[in-house]
Amino acid sequence: MNPPRPTDAVDQILAQWQEHRPDLDTRAMGPLGRLKRVAALLDRELRTTFSSFDLSPWEFDVLATLRRSGPPYRLAPTALFSALMVSSGTMTHRLHGLEHRGWVKRSPNPDDARSLMVELSPLGLERIDAALAAHVANLERLLAPLPAAERDALDHALSLLLNRLEA
């Protein structure tokens, strides 16, 4: 049997709904409300780490996507905006900013003369490698309160939910 968990802000919301709309089963608000609050709080924590490397979250995401593509750390813009789930217009704007900062460069696509490739510059590679190490350490710190079995169970449950939502 699990020990009782501490109460949180979502419990207060659920209690208010129970009092004022006892006819509704609001239990689904619990996990989804907690996910929403956790996402907002995690976003704040992640932004703090990224900002210490003069990166915004979207800049980190673009550089990390290029980095994890492997050498030569180059992708077509369509592959980038598909991986990052943004529009082509948004991607173009973001690439201009990253290019201006010297973190990416665009070069002709050797397979299609009509298009360009986006590649990490040496400065961008250095920036993302440093930020990534700090990011991973920050993620470990954030998950440290959960024992390994609970982390695995959370990961499993979120994977099931994500798969159903993405379908």
Give your account of this protein's structure.
The protein has 167 residues and is mainly alpha-helical. Helix content is 65%, strand content 10%. The protein has seven helices and three strands, in the order αααβααββαα. It has helices at residues 9-20, 29-51, 57-68, 77-84, 88-100, 122-143, 148-166, and strands at 74-75, 104-109, 112-120. It has a three-stranded antiparallel beta sheet. Helix 2 (29-51) packs across helix 6, helix 3 (57-68) crosses helix 6 (122-143) and helix 4 crosses helix 5. The longest helix is centred in the N-terminal third of the chain and has 23 residues, at 29-51. The chain starts with 8 loop residues before the first helix and ends with a helix.
